[in-house]
User: Which sequence fits this backbone?
């Protein structure tokens, strides 16, 4: 399939108002698309099906599933996509500054009162002018964010979401579980040396410790890597890999409930942080800070490495894999408006004005790609 025919097929699906997802995983020249053959809204609660899942921040709401059996699948291998650029000015609505400043102050007070250790607070930013066609935006995301999961997801009964997220919630290959602890944010600059603060390292360690603790009942042989700095577009983050083996009999649903939402998008402890968000943010996050990805797909091991691996897979055996990414750096398009979602982690040392500036920087990063 050529690049032109691949995207023509995708655009026809969108024109016909049929569900689809097009996506590319980090450091990958492969673009995949799933085209559902009807407009039915499929959901999952137990995550036992096979398909592509799109899950909300609040798992009391159902996750949308594009079932593997109900979709046509196409793959395109390409390193860069030519786009006929027609740049247009796009403005954003930042009139909610005082509300967000007050929200962050309230979060800091809750932390100092001992109710929380950390809470992640966000805001929804409406765009006052139309951006480019969603498929064009996806192409630009693919060209720009090589180290992120980039996607465009659409269902006529839900809406359209676009994003470029650097954060893996977790992936499962056989019984091997891999997670990423990601926290801290700085603007990328070629002129300045990176200097992370104690607050940012503290935020990163909270996420790492939390993940290790949460999976302790479901895994063994857990190892963590050293903290490293990673770049995602014009922003920098602190990242740690956490790898373990899933104990026999553990369900995928139990691991999801243990890990989602992480402190990087919710806070710590999870239950009171989530309650604080739902009661104080003033809007419904929907699928922002939810997760998305491939669910229970089959993978055949095609070569023998001559060494015993943890999954004990021999040549030619089939194993199941899933990979889920946290829905960050995303945009929602509905019939009447377009919105960007941004947020930041709040600790006792946070400064409301600086937290506001961080959300503004994140908004600009997304907006640069949209327009």
Assistant:
């Amino acid at each position: 399939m050529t690049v032109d025919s691949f995207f023509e097929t995708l655009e026809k699906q969108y024109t016909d108002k049929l569900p689809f997802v097009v996506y590319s995983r980090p450091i990958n020249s492969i673009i995949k698309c799933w085209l559902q053959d009807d407009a039915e809204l499929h959901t999952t609660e137990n995550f036992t099906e096979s398909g592509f899942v799109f899950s909300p921040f609040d798992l009391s709401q159902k996750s949308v599933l594009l079932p593997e059996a109900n979709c046509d699948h196409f793959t395109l291998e390409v390193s860069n996509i030519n786009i006929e650029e027609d740049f247009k000015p796009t403005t954003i609505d930042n009139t909610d500054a005082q509300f967000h400043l007050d929200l962050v102050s309230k979060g800091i007070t809750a932390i100092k009162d001992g109710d929380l250790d950390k809470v992640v607070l966000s805001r929804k930013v409406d765009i006052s002018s139309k951006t480019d066609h969603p498929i064009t935006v996806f192409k630009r995301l693919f060209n720009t964010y090589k180290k992120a999961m980039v996607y465009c997801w659409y269902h006529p009964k839900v809406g359209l979401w676009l994003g470029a997220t650097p954060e893996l919630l977790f992936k499962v290959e056989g019984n091997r579980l891999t997670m990423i602890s990601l926290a801290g944010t700085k603007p990328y600059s070629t002129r300045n040396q990176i200097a992370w603060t104690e607050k940012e390292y503290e935020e990163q360690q909270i996420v790492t410790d939390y993940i290790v603790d949460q999976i302790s009942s479901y895994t063994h042989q857990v190892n963590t890597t050293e903290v490293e700095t990673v770049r995602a577009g014009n922003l920098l983050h602190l990242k740690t890999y956490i790898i373990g083996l899933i104990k026999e009999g553990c369900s995928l649903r139990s691991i999801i409930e243990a890990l989602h939402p992480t402190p990087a998008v919710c806070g710590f402890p999870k239950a009171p942080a989530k309650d604080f968000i739902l009661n104080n943010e003033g809007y419904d996050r929907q699928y922002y800070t939810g997760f998305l990805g491939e669910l229970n797909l089959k993978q055949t091991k095609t070569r023998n490495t001559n060494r015993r691996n943890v999954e004990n897979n021999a040549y030619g055996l089939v194993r199941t894999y899933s990979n889920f990414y946290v829905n960050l750096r995303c945009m929602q398009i509905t019939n009447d408006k377009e919105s960007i979602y941004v947020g930041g982690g709040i600790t006792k040392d946070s400064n409301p004005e600086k937290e506001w500036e961080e959300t503004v920087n994140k908004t600009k990063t997304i907006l640069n790609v949209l327009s």
